[in-house]
Amino acid sequence: MIRKLSYSQAINEALALEMERDSSVVVMGEDVCGGRGTDEPLDAWGGVLGVTKGLYAKFGDRVMDTPISESAFIGAAIGAAACGMRPVAELMFIDFLGVCLDQIANQAAKFRYMFGGKAETPVVIRTMIGGGFRAAAQHSQCWYPIFTHIPGLKVVVPSSPQDAKGLLITAIRDNDPVIFCEHKALYGIKGEVPEGSYTIPFGQANIVRPGKDVTIVALGLMVHKATQAATALAKDGIECEIVDPRTTSPLDTAKILESVRKTGRLVVVDEASGRCGMAADISAMVAQQAFASLKAQIEMVTPPFTPPPFSPVLEDAYLPDAEKVQAAVKAVLGT
Amino acid sequence: MLKKWQKKDLLKAYRTMREIREFEERVHIEFAAGGIPGFVHLYAGEEACATGVCMHLKANDKIASTHRGHGHCIAKGVDINGMMAEIYGKKTGTCGGKGGSMHIADLDKGMMGANGIVGAGPPLICGAGLAAKTKGSGGVGVAFFGDGGSNQGTVFEAMNLSMAWQLPCVFVVENNGFAESTSPKYTAPGVTNLSDRAKGVGMPGVTVDGFDFFAVHEAAGEMIDRARKGQGPSLLEVKFTRYFGHFEGDAMTYRPKDEVKKIRQTVDCLLQFRNKVTSAGMVTDAELDAVDREVKALVEESVVQAKAAPNPPLSDLLTDVYVSY
Question: What is the ipTM of this complex?
Answer without folding.
Answer: 0.95
